[in-house]
Design brief:
Elements lengths: L6 H5 L3 E11 L8 E6 L1 H4 L1 E6 L7 H4 L3 E5 L5 E3 L2 E3 L2 E2 L1 E2 L7 E2 L11 E2 L1
Length: 113
């Protein structure tokens, strides 16, 4: 294994469950992408990101999904929007990135450990 993380480094990564509440085509993106708004519960709130997941998903089917995201990256300007978190997914070169999802009974904001 190259460059393994130690436990203290892993603990710094804040991953949470979020509920997708809005998704739309990111028209200004260089590569096909969506703008995705996710509710991470009362402590974190609603955050926005850009996601290149257009091959596998359309915006309407993203609404209501419980996804996993890293919520403590610094904001990153992507064209006209500021990305506030990173959606996590399996990088599938044949079928497009598959988002990591959790069962519906897990509350938005739940910490991933």
């Amino acid at each position: 294994m190259k460059n393994p993380l130690n436990w203290k480094e892993f603990e710094r990564v804040h991953m949470h469950v979020g509920l997708v509440i809005e998704a739309s085509v990111f028209k200004e993106a260089k590569n096909p992408a969506y703008i995705v708004n996710v509710d991470f519960g009362p402590e974190i709130g609603t955050l926005k990101t850009s996601a290149q997941i257009t091959y596998r998903y359309n915006p309407a089917e993203l609404i209501g999904k419980k996804v996993v995201a890293v919520t403590n990256f610094p904001p990153k300007q992507i064209g006209p929007i500021q990305s506030e978190f990173l959606l996590l997914g399996a990088l599938d070169s044949l079928n497009g990135t598959a988002l990591l999802e959790v069962p519906g009974d897990v509350a938005p904001g739940t910490r991933i450990a």
